[in-house]
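Module 6 notes. Inverse folding takes a fixed backbone as the condition and produces residue identities as the prediction. Think of it as a translation problem where the source language is geometry and the target language is the twenty amino acids. Below is one complete input and output pair. Work through it position by position during the lab.
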């Protein structure tokens, strides 16, 4: 969600990612990049939902991968 403010944009995003895969420094770098690209101050809030990926590969009829 993007909310305009008088002197900045409030940007809130939600992502799914493995625990500890995104650092505060990376969030700061994204904010800095967006600020330069858009030319306006950005107040960035990122909500990270932990994600775990499980897969079950297809098996052939005889039970082999």
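Target side of the pair, the amino acids:
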């Amino acid at each position: 969600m993007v909310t305009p403010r008088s002197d900045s944009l409030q940007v809130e995003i939600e992502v799914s990612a493995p625990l500890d895969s995104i650092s505060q420094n990376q969030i700061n770098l994204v904010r800095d990049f967006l600020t330069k690209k858009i030319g306006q101050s950005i107040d960035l809030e990122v909500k990270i939902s932990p994600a775990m990926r499980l897969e079950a590969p297809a098996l052939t009829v005889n039970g082999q991968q």
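Reference fact for the lab report: DSSP finds one helix and three strands in the chain.
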